[in-house]
Amino acid sequence: MENLIDRPLHEVDLELLEITLQDLERQQHCLTLIPSENYASIAVMEAQGSILANKYAEGYPEARYYNGCQFMDSVESLAIERAKQLFGVDHANVQPHAGTQANMAAYHALLEAGDTILSLKLDHGGHLSHGLKQNFSGRYYNIVHYGVDPDTERIDMNTVGELAEQHRPKLIVVGATAYPRQFDFAEWRVIADSVNAYLLADIAHIAGLVAAGVHPDPAPHCDVITTTTHKTLRGPRGAMVMCRQEFAEAVDRAVFPGLQGGPFMHSIAAKAVAFKEAMEPAFKEYQAQVVENAQAMADTLKSNGLRPITGGTENHLMLIDLSTSYEKLSGRQAADHLEDAGIIVNKNTIPFDKRSAVTTSGIRLGTPMVTTRGMRESEMRTIAELISETLEGRRNSEVKKRVKAKVSELSRQFPIYEDLRPVS
Ligand SMILES: Cc1ncc(COP(=O)(O)O)c(C=O)c1O
Which residue range(s) make up the domain with 234? Predict the structure, then answer.
């Protein structure tokens, strides 16, 4: 029987290898400003692509439903202990496959179907797992939303308090997918306590900032914390749920057997690696630079007449309201024009948007990836100028060509994954 196991990808599937190399080139030569993405380290990717993917390990360390799990126990315990140390929490479940599943597990642990959740409106920056009608969250729970104030475009804590008083939610969710300001979790705790609600912080976007201490810490104030591991935290695609000891058993039962079967042990291994990297001093410097870079970019865009929602940013992202400078230009069109010039952003609704979620009046930009490449404030100012130039000259292909050449040059000066070459 022919051995099909020991051959490398370039001998088995050139078609797939070719596509991967094309995206490697795109990742290397474009400037990606999508705030929810990052470049995972080679070490993280090595763990994620390892033989650990081969093992079924349903259950938890020391309590598995399969034999042969002694090393899986070591892997998962390592990830758990590092997560607890990194975020200063009592308990961590590192098995959720993605952020949506982590939120699902948290709700499953704390609530019954039909219970009330108070969370941020989706078109004001909330996430679909915080109550979109078509999502499980909107289907199985009674969702009440708070939004941002029309003048300040910030969450008004008085309004949150009033809504909590009026609707008596069992759970308050604090966290966002497109909100450029910090959360003061202590204030949220006061509101949660006033109505006897659980408090969940979804730090999917800001986990890296929190781990590095450049964003207020949810751990002392929240009952449960959910996060993805692949955004600012710069780990593998995946998620986790952290909580106070009193919720540990309910959270673990909610993840398995409640919602998932076998954990992705290769992903858990890669999470362990990412948590170790996040404890290094260089990671703290990186996260501080992510925020400084975002502020530099927002300032330059603002000087060029592009309005950042709330006037700026305190984290890794900014939301640009295109409607004030280009009435006819939608977020979708702007993102496409920028892609023509090698700059990757995503369209995003802005608070009180007159356009739909498919068209949008805004674009969302973030600095995690360009900062991973080693760029600093001066490059952010350059990128902001290139964005303005592209939008201003969007109907002129020469402008886009010129910007693209500058994007390529900048990408070459700050290379990424230089040693990743096709194996020959
Ligand atoms: C705040 C927040 N929560 C949860 C998620 C869900 O993560 P995933 O896409 O891994 O399901 C996201 C993803 O964008 C997010 O921004």
Answer: 46-278
